[in-house]
Amino acid sequence: MSVTEEIKSRIDIVSYVLRHVPELKKAGRNHKACCPFHTEKTPSFVVNPERQSWHCFGACAEGGDLFTFAQKMHGWDFKEALHELALEAGVELRQRTPEQLARADHLDRMRGLVSAASDLYHEQLFKPESKPVLNYVSETRGLSRDTVGLFRIGVAPDRWDFALDALLAMGYAEDEIIEAGLAVRNDRGNIYDRFRNRLIIPINDERGRAVGFGGRALDPDEPAKYINSPQSPLFDKSRLLYGLDRARSAIRESGVAVIVEGYMDVIQAHQAGYLNVVAQMGTAMTETQIRRIALGRAKYAKSIVLALDSDAAGQSAARRSLEVARQILVEDYSGKFQVDIRILQLPTDQDPDDVLRRSPQTWPQLVDSAQDVADFVIDSETETLPPDASMQARQQAALNILPILSASENNPYQRENLQKLARRLRISERDLLAWAPAQSPAPNAPRPSRRQNQTLDYATLDPDDAPPEYWDSEHEPAPPDIDNGQGPPSVYHSEQQRAIEPFCLSLLLKNPNLLYKVNRKLRELAGADSNLRHGPLGDLNENDFTHSKYRILMTYLLEAMTQDDQEPLEYLVSIVDGELSADLSALLSDDAQVVSSRMRGAYLVDMSDIIERRRSRGAVANEVSSMLIGRALQLRLQRLERERIEMQYLQEEAQTGADIDEQHRERLSQQIMLSMTAKARLDHEVRYA
User: Fold this and answer.
1) Residue 155 and residue 196 in one domain
2) Within this chain, do residues 401 and 266 fall inside the same structural domain, yes or no?
3) Are residues 168 and 31 in the same domain?
4) Which stretches of the chain score pLDDT less than 70?
5) Is the same domain home to 123 and 82?
6) DSSP per-residue codes, 70-82
7) Domain span at residue 517?
8) How far out from the chain centre does Cα 324 lie?
9) What is the 3-state secondary structure (H, E, C) of 523-570?
């Protein structure tokens, strides 16, 4: 039994969910309650004790097992959930190497040092000699005592050895204090405090642990208004977003992350009750920051609002942030970057801190009125063009604008934006379209399929192409591990499903970037229907796999693709051990017999075929990609079959239960229709691809 299976065998999901959702009540085979992840009046959150699973049939349209519930409820990643649930279940996790233990101990000691310094600076703020600074914080900056305490704001006195002496007295070594960024050694070997005569703002990582500091000068003549901790094993400003530890729940709930420039902007916003505000740690957003907040398993934000200062520097920073976002798309034409970016235009000569102190009630309206990228870029690039600008100047403006407009999952040259740009620059749409291809990532794009140029209307499919009546499963074998009262499932279906799962996972492990192509195909099938895109045709994930070891490996793979310290495969190898390590090695093997023996023979034909292709033709990328996409769509079809069984149970209960819930039944009917639509599109794609 794997570690995760042992944990789930010891922690009953109903009991665990009940701790966090006390209104959970038994209803037939299942337990129901209002969803804890969104506001609703009629229960749509269902826990199935037989399968040890949960699902929201309301706005979330998500589900999973004990681990996914714990992750979503607490904002944990998979490793955090594994660690916390293992502690609760009394299950011992894998042993770490001596080197790993030594590094972990060192980082813990560094965190202890930074935390001690944070307490030191905070306590100093309330000493009699710091009264002028406290007055500045409360009167000039308008921060309450509660806010000062919540963000642990402090002060570094105008001394060369305040922190150094105190930390040495606590038992920390000089080299440790320097490594943590709290002291500096000069060329003559003398050591002194880095932060002197500054307001101190601790900077936390995503888990709320202090990792560094920002220091604001208290002397108005000091040339460096702000200084940060230097790069250290704990502190990397290109990866951090100030305030994310306190903002992530609000961002996840609202789907909107508001990005500001400074620490004080964040603190003022949170004091005013706007908790979805974080700050970039430099002059512009970095790729890692954008990925951290809008990609991967955490995927906090669906929309980013850049609320930067109204001065030239702020506007320039906004443009650089947009350029970073565009580069992500240019380098990855498959469209993994799915987030709506908008620009908040602040009143002239004001920054967010000013607005939030003077009129905090206007903040929501400002956020709601943020410009989309197209409008902002067109306005900012053309505002300095004189009415009689030359053709060359107007063409250059167009060439500056077109790449930014392409940073969108939608058609970057959609007619509305082209018309707007054409009118503004007095250039024909035809010319703009002629210039546009030079800005697109076409050379790297996948080869179009033979049907790519056809317009497919799924609503008018030939009757032979449509799926059978959704609940008519007479000719559809039941998925494995589901007792349908009619004996074991079809042997062929079981073998086929078991073969597809390792086949897809093997290709994804060897070529992680292919996952984005699979997701791109799913989004292409969903089209403009956001319900499909965020529901039955959403991104491939661990819920598409039935076997626990594949689900875990897929979870690790998704996690590997959100971190930036190592290549995904290196990261996987470093964190997977025990029985899973052998499974990972088998999936990564090029030897079909090795893989087949590990997978009980179900994998041999497909694996032999792909290995032969790799040897004889060099594994042409498009062929491998097409093969994976086809199998992944079949995997999704199998998942829809499994979910169909669950919805069938729920529909029966809604129709025959004593307390018939019309709203719940209507939601189920809508989800059934949505699943039918997705199944029709998948069937058509798989059949005719």
Assistant:
1) yes
2) yes
3) no
4) 1-2, 94-96, 283, 295-299, 309-315, 317-319, 325-339, 403-415, 436-498, 578, 590-621, 645, 648-664, 688-689
5) no
6) HHHHHT--HHHHH
7) 458-470+488-688
8) 17
9) HHHHCCCHHHHCCCCCCCCHHHCCCHHHHHHHHHHHHHCCCCCCCHHH
